Amino acid sequence: MFAALEENLARVRAGISGAATRAGRSEDEVRLIAVTKTLRIEAVEAAAALGVEDFGENYIQELRGKASERPDLHWHYIGALQSGTAHHVADVADYVHGLEPGGAVTRLSERAASRGKNLPVLVQVDFEGGRNGVAPEQLDVFVQEVASLDGLVLSGLMTLPPMPESPEDCRPYFRRLREMRDRLRKTHPVLVELSMGMSLDYEVAVEEGATMVRVGTALFGERTKR
Question: How high is the pLDDT of residue 162?
Answer without folding.
Answer: 85
